[in-house]
Amino acid sequence: MSNPHTKPGAYPLSLLSAVCGLPCLRVCGRRHVSLTRIVEGNDTKEEEFPWQASVQWKGVHMCGASLINQEWLITAAHCFYQLRNLTQYRVVLGILQLQNPGPHSRACPVQRIIPNPNYAGQTTSGDIALIQLATPVNFSDYILPICLPDTSIRFPPGKECWVTGWGPGVVDLPSPQTLQKLQVPIIDTKTCKSLYRTNGVNRPPYRDIQDDMICAGYAEGLRDACNGDSGGPMMCIVGDVWVLAGVVSWGEGCAIKNRPGVYSRLTSYQNWIQEYVPNIEFIKESKGRKSRDVANIIGQKHPDEVWASHAASAAVSTLVLLAC
């Protein structure tokens, strides 16, 4: 069964504003593909996480990132602990397979990289950074931003969220290196601290879980984010949209027992993000409300609807990346 709606290739901001005004510019975090249950993860599908980006150095994937509007992304500060020539970085959007980017991907040059000033090295606070693209990117079914959480939003222990990335260790993923997804439950800070002190090899001071960190994963190990996932999203559904709850930051090894993943907590950085992106919206959770204004743009269904299918046939994939 084919989709009765025509899917436009891109939505310039000026066109969106002219067609539907400011309310429907909230295109962030729309649900698009039903989920199944990045060690022990599963392949993602096209359009499933359209905010996921690959940050590349000299054309090689180094970290993940999340698109938050037409020109800004959020990633981890530790990806740029030794910041190099900006002209050698690029952000690739709309990409599912690293070795087979496809016709919907865009390779975007970088204008600015802004690591949080509090970051002081591995496992410290402030492991978050902003990336500004040199040219705004047009939104499409394959490139959309994720919503950011207001400080009022809580992510309670046990809440099921998801993490995506091209780890563990990009070289370990079989060709064509498809983006992986993994469901992870939130772990409360007290429990996470206790786990990290269990069977600790090092003597005090222990690696401590700071207030600007949030843990997610499994005490038994086996499933986790890993190398190559750094900077990517840990995201949860709030209301009817995907919200960026955390940024892949650190852990002790990958998928080790009593060592769940540790993420930079987005709600700790609302003011800092707004310093550089003053017009960005932070989503508040409204009780008793069923939102109908998310991604309500031409040719796009409401998030509660499931796409019947992808296009019957896609253009032949190519390794040539189109410029942003």
TrEMBL record:
Keywords: Disulfide bond, Hydrolase, Protease, Serine protease
MF annotations from Gene Ontology: serine-type endopeptidase activity
Domain Peptidase S1: 38-278
PROSITE patterns reported for this sequence: TRYPSIN_DOM, TRYPSIN_HIS, TRYPSIN_SER
Biological process, per Gene Ontology: proteolysis
Record field: transmembrane: none
InterPro entries assigned to the protein according to its UniProt record, in alphabetical order: Peptidase_S1_PA (IPR009003), Peptidase_S1_PA_chymotrypsin (IPR043504), Peptidase_S1A (IPR001314), Trypsin_dom (IPR001254), TRYPSIN_HIS (IPR018114), TRYPSIN_SER (IPR033116)
Entry annotated with the keyword Metal-binding: no
Cited Pfam families: Trypsin
Record protein name field: Peptidase S1 domain-containing protein
Species of the source: Pelodiscus sinensis
Higher taxonomy: Eukaryota, Metazoa, Chordata, Craniata, Vertebrata
